[in-house]
Amino acid sequence: MAPSAAERRRGVAAVAAYMITAWAVLGGVLLLAVVAMNVLSVIGGVIWKPFPGDFEMTQVGVGIAAFAFLPYCQLTGKNVTADIFTMGAAPRWIARFRLAASAVALLFALLLLWRMWLGMGDQREYGYTTTILQFPIWTAFVPILVSLGLLALAAAMTLIEAAEGRIDGDRND
């Protein structure tokens, strides 16, 4: 069996893939913490007084976690796809579609990175805070910006791999 694209990554690409994977794992840990907090809050509402701000922390935590998964999905080719349109396509066309998808993902990641950076600046400048806990909203943008930077890196990696023909031919696993 031929090695996958992930197994063929060496040097800087392997380090980047490790960072992207670690970031996704941290996103998963954050999501588990949000779930645990919600369970404690629900139980607390029945047994004792629930703690304030759980809704705000859930919003921020889930948003950050969702962005943390994007680079990993791009790097591993596990984004949602419409395979029904390409089931009968020749491998050459599939490779072209993957190349185009990686290019679009890179452009989209850079656009989001730019706009979220400006959005963070606005949130910070105007001093917006959450209603109950009063923590600055701009702080939630920092890990999201890291995620978008890693998404741009993952998209660039998959673009290079697609251009070199190193992306796995069969992704129907």
TrEMBL record:
Topology with respect to the bilayer: Multi-pass membrane protein
Membrane spanning residue stretches: 12-37, 57-76, 97-117, 137-160
Signal peptide per UniProt: none
Xref: Pfam families: DctQ (PF04290)
Alphabetized InterPro entries for the sequence: DctQ
Principal location: membrane
Function: Part of the tripartite ATP-independent periplasmic (TRAP) transport system.
Recorded family membership: Belongs to the TRAP transporter small permease family.
Subunit structure, interactors included: The complex comprises the extracytoplasmic solute receptor protein and the two transmembrane proteins.
Name used for this protein in its record: TRAP transporter small permease protein
